[in-house]
Amino acid sequence: MATIAQSVAASPGRWTWLREYLREDLKPYPGRGALVARTVIAATLAMIVTMIFRIPYGAYAAIFALQISRESPRATDQNVKTILIAFACSALYVLIGAIFFLGDPVQRLLWVIGTLFLIFYALSTLTNYTAAARFGYLAVISIPLWDSHVSAEVKVENTLWAVGAVTV
Questions:
Q1: At 168, is the secondary structure helix, strand, or coil?
Q2: pLDDT of 83-142, one tens digit each?
Q3: Through-space distance between the first and last CA atoms of the chain, rounded to whole angstroms
Q4: Number of H helices, E strands in the chain
Q5: DSSP 57-99
Q6: DSSP 3-state of 80
Q7: In a 10 Å sphere around its CB, with 0-12 CB exposed, 13-18 middle and 19+ buried, how is residue 65 labelled?
Q8: In this structure, are residues 58 and 50 in contact, taking their beta carbons and an 8 Å threshold?
Q9: CB proximity list for 152: less than 8 A, separation 6 or greater
């Protein structure tokens, strides 16, 4: 009991770990200013485009603009290609699944369960985590769209708007 009391008394303040973490994480290094500028410009341009053209799901565009790796132009190019391919595959998967399973609620439920299983399986087994995560993210965004009580045209349109927003 005495050792616990001594360790608590000897430990630094409650928020010291946060201050030390931020100090280490925000430490300047060569090229950091340019990296921050590219990230801010990309997110700002994505939001400007979505606001000017009133693209639904514009917040997803800003989120993905911040998540793209900008450590080097090659890494950025590779990451963007991976994301675009994953989003295209996910949109195709969702639209084909909707064609086959939208009419029957039981089949739709089984398709949703199978889709979620596929996403988690892909996340755990694929070597490219980015591709699996982006595939899953768009599929998960689309599931509530297809469960709403609107016409099939609106469902397809909203799915394509979601794809368009995240690829901005």
A1: coil
A2: 889 989 999 999 999 888 888 889 999 999 999 999 999 999 989 888 899 899 889 988
A3: 58
A4: 8, 0
A5: THHHHHHHHHHS--SSHHHHHHHHHHHHHHHHHHHHHHHHHHH
A6: helix
A7: buried
A8: yes
A9: 98, 102
Rounded Cα distance, 156 and 150, in Å: 10
Task: Tell me which amino acid residue 82 is.
Answer: T
Amino acid letter, residue 103:
G
The sign of the torsion formed by the CA atoms of 49, 53, 54, 58 equals negative
pLDDT in tens, 13-42: 778 888 888 888 888 888 888 888 888 888
Residue 120: CA atoms inside 13 Å, Cβ hemisphere, count? Answer: 5
DSSP per-residue string spanning 38-58: HHHHHHHHHHHHHHHTT-TTH
* Triad 98, 103, 108: Cα angle to 5°: 60
pLDDT surpassing 90 at residue 149:
no
130-144 burial by CB neighbour count: b if 16+ within 10 A, else e? bbbbbbbbbbebbee
Grouping H, G, I as helix, E, B as strand and the rest as coil, residue 104 is coil
